[in-house]
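Exercise 7b. Backbone tokens:
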């Protein structure tokens, strides 16, 4: 499911890049024809790029929230939960190993 979201995100980013290039070409053409000043053209391009980046960030946040919501509703453990469980298991393995060692030492003493 996450791969599907990544593919969609990258497709969207590709479209933004292509669109930005097209906007830049058209603005540069208007500047060359004297219909816009170079400064106006640069400002329009900067504004377009900024708005695109803002929309991209907003889109990423929405996707992230949707994925988290889907994982929660499906009761799927997240990375943090898995890491916590791995740490607890490792701790328990250490304790079991220590107890087994103590038990073996006591058995040797008892013989």
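Sequence design result:
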């Amino acid at each position: 499911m996450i791969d599907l979201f990544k593919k969609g995100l990258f497709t969207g980013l590709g479209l933004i890049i292509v669109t930005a290039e097209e906007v830049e070409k058209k603005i540069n053409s208007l500047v060359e024809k004297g219909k816009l000043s170079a400064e106006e053209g640069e400002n329009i391009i900067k504004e377009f790029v900024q708005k695109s980046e803002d929309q991209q960030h907003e889109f990423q946040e929405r996707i992230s929230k949707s994925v988290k919501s889907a994982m929660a509703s499906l009761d799927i453990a997240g990375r943090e939960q898995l890491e916590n469980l791995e740490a607890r298991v490792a701790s328990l393995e250490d304790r079991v190993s220590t107890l087994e060692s103590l038990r073996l030492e006591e058995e040797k003493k008892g013989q």
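Instructor comment: The chain has two domains: 1-76, 77-111. The chain has a mean pLDDT of 82.
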